[in-house]
């Protein structure tokens, strides 16, 4: 048990749907991350929140909208996605936003966009 | 331009063999991470190291900051070690960001 949970674990949605991915960490960490892992590609950092403020946004399309209401919860709101957005979406947390800090990952949400 | 290169991309070995996975990178970094991803997708952090060597059970990680190279070794490999091993670090040039960039991973299969 990593202490980072994600729901749902699997999601199938049409291009016109709106859905949200949820991440929760029970580790008392101050930084939370969204990553995307497409087939045959390395993990890509999408967003970073540190102390509930967004500190990094890696040129992610606006159809992905993150929200961090408090230090324990992170959401990724999805709307009008494209089939190429189908991927594994991973949430992670770390004590602080620093490359010296170990990151703890959730199990991921496997997203399929039809 | 790839900031980080892992080798080999795929490795199949027999149970008990000594395994070495390499990670080379092009920009100076302060810390490097080794991660393990199992077929279901879950990722576990194995090591974070900024110099020298770390050991945890049958896993050993080394880093040479000057040569910009790190290795992950598995001694007495076992089928349960079958996974994708990923190195990651703040490899992005331009400085400032502490977000991690990930290698493509080494897909390891240990056969009984």
Summarize the structure in short.
The complex is a heterodimer of chains A (114) and B (112). With 114 residues, chain A is mainly beta.
Task: Please characterize this protein's 3D structure.
Chain A is mainly beta. Chain A is 0% helix and 56% strand. Chain A has no helices and eleven strands. Chain A has strands spanning 4-7, 10-13, 18-25, 31-37, 44-50, 53-57, 64-70, 73-79, 87-94, 104-105, 109-113. In chain A, strands 2, 4, 5, 6, 9, 10 and 11 form a seven-stranded mixed sheet that branches. In chain A, a hairpin with a 6-residue loop joins strand 4 and strand 5. In chain A, 35% of the residues are buried. Chain B is mainly β. Chain B is 0% helix and 54% strand. Chain B is built from no helices and eleven strands. Chain B has strands at 4-7, 10-14, 19-25, 32-37, 43-49, 52-56, 59-64, 69-74, 83-89, 101-102, 106-111. In chain B, strands 2, 4, 5, 9, 10 and 11 form a six-stranded mixed sheet that branches. Chain B has a five-stranded antiparallel sheet with strand order 1-3-8-7-6, with no helix packed on it. The chains are: A mainly beta (114), B mainly beta (112). Chain A binds chain B through residues 2, 33, 37, 41-45, 48, 56, 58, 88, 90, 92, 97-105, 107-108, 110, and chain B through 29-31, 33, 35, 40-45, 48, 50, 86, 88-90, 97-105.
- Please count the beta strands of chain A (DSSP E, at least 2 residues each): 11
How far apart lie the N and C ends of chain A?
32 Å
Classify the helix fraction of chain B into a percent range.
under 10%
Quote the distance from N terminus to C terminus of chain B: 38 Å
Q: Strand fraction band of chain B?
A: over 45%
Helix segment tally of chain A: 0
Calculate Rg of chain B over CA atoms: 14 Å
User: Would you tell me the structural class of the helices and strands of chain A?
Assistant: mainly beta
Global morphology of chain B = globular
Largest sheet of chain B: 6 strands, mixed
Beta-strand proportion of chain A: over 45%
Q: How would the global form of chain A be characterised? A: globular
């Amino acid at each position: 048990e990593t202490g980072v949970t994600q729901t749902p674990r699997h999601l199938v949605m049409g291009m016109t749907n709106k859905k949200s991915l949820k991440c929760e960490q029970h580790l008392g960490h101050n930084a939370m991350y969204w990553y995307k892992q497409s087939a045959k590609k390395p993990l890509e950092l999408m967003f970073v929140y540190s102390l509930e403020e967004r500190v990094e946004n890696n040129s992610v399309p606006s159809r992905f909208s993150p929200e961090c209401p408090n230090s324990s919860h992170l959401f990724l709101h999805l709307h009008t996605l494209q089939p190429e957005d189908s991927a594994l979406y991973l949430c992670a947390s770390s004590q602080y936003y620093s490359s010296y800090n170990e990151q703890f990952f959730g199990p991921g949400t496997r997203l399929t966009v039809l | 331009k790839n900031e980080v290169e892992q080798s080999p991309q795929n490795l199949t070995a027999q149970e008990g063999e000594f395994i070495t996975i390499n990670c080379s990178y092009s920009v100076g970094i302060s810390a490097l991470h080794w991660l393990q991803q199992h077929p279901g997708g879950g990722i576990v952090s194995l090591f974070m190291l900024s110099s020298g060597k770390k050991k945890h059970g049958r896993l050993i990680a080394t880093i040479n900051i000057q040569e910009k190279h790190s290795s992950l070794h598995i001694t007495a490999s076992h089928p349960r070690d079958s996974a994708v091993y990923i190195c990651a670090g703040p490899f992005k040039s331009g400085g400032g960001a502490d977000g991690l960039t990930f290698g493509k991973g080494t897909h390891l299969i240990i056969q009984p």
